[in-house]
Design a protein that fits this description.
alpha+beta; four-stranded antiparallel beta sheet
Length: 191
């Protein structure tokens, strides 16, 4: 699995324009988006294009979409996420999902939507913002890898009854890392 992160402020206007030309369907959808949202989305595609060239030597490729709207390539698996000033992309030979979240957006609650009771207790037991982002990014990465809807995440149980994290769930291995005020998680299908 290959993972790259980019600060959207470090991509030039020319690189954004080139990325938009390479992915005209995305550029068209983004026409009425606020500039920062446009940049975040294009930054993920910028990373994908760059990674496919580096890993596979391909100058061109086409993205298709499955029945759930999940973007796919015929020769590998990929996932993109963005939050704040950062975009991330994962490319792998097996199904993969990635998510990035800023810990600063956390709001403590008694119960979190899409979280089980064990997950809520895990979040609220200590270091709530980071723990919330760990569970949230793991659920998002898992759902992206599986190609399901976010509501599907509510059925996952990523914490044991003893309130420790599960590093494997549903045949996917999770890797979570801190990145400044962000948490990044990948979920990759085990071979």
């Amino acid at each position: 699995m290959f993972v790259k992160t980019v600060d959207i402020r470090r991509i030039t206007d020319a690189e954004y324009a080139e990325t938009g030309k390479f992915f005209p369907d995305i550029a068209k959808k983004l026409e009425n988006f606020p500039p920062e949202d446009r940049k975040r989305t294009l930054a993920g595609r910028y990373l994908l294009k760059k990674m496919i060239k580096e890993i596979y030597g391909r100058e061109s490729f086409e993205i298709s979409y499955n029945g759930n709207g999940k973007p796919e390539l015929e020769f590998c698996f990929f996932s993109i996420s963005h939050s704040g000033n950062y975009a991330v992309c994962a490319v792998a030979e097996t199904p993969v999902g990635i998510d990035i979240e800023n810990t600063g957006r956390f709001r403590r609650r008694e119960k979190y939507m899409f979280f089980t009771d064990n997950e809520t207790r895990y979040v609220n037991s200590a270091d709530s913002a980071r723990r919330f982002c760990i569970i949230w990014t793991r659920k998002e990465a898992y759902v992206k890898a599986e190609g399901g809807a976010l509501a599907f995440a509510a059925k996952t149980e990523l914490v044991t009854p003893e309130l420790s994290l599960k590093d494997i769930y549903g045949g996917y291995a999770f890797i979570t890392r801190d990145f400044g005020d962000y948490v990044i998680t990948t979920a990759q299908k085990e071979p």
